[in-house]
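Exercise: predict the fold of this chain.
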Amino acid sequence: MTRKRFITIVLILVFLQIVLNLSLSISTYLMLAPLCFVIQGLERGASSVKCMIVAFALGLVVDIFSSGIPGLWSAALVAASVPRLIIVKRRFWKNDTAYYDMPSPVDMGQGAFFLCSFAVSLVFFISYALLEKMAVALTWNDIVRVVLSIIVNTVCVYLIAISVQDNKRR
């Protein structure tokens, strides 16, 4: 994937995230975070500092243009970048000089990509819910909301990854 195409996808997902935050009030039951794809979709060789700065900047944009607690998205996205860094740095690819530079379901394997999406969503939603409540424990309603959000978001990130990957690599 070219850098220009990835930036276009990032801008679309940021806009979609802002629209979801402002216009859909389903967050009491389920929360969608397509920006987790951007965190997971950063190039394989991205350093931890670059990954966290991108996560913070994207979260800051969503925080500024959405109504909500300032800094909540920034903190949750930075936290979500940690499992992505651990998984992607430890993963071995046969061809590290490939054109498709971001981790994809084809490169990582379907199961590994799905588990990476699950880990990123898990950390994102747990940190988001804990920071939103400003508590160290969650109620049963929050736990149900987090679990549903993790499942739906993992599937959404996986579907976004499949739909945006290059056709020649499928």
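Check your answer against the key: The mean pLDDT is 81.
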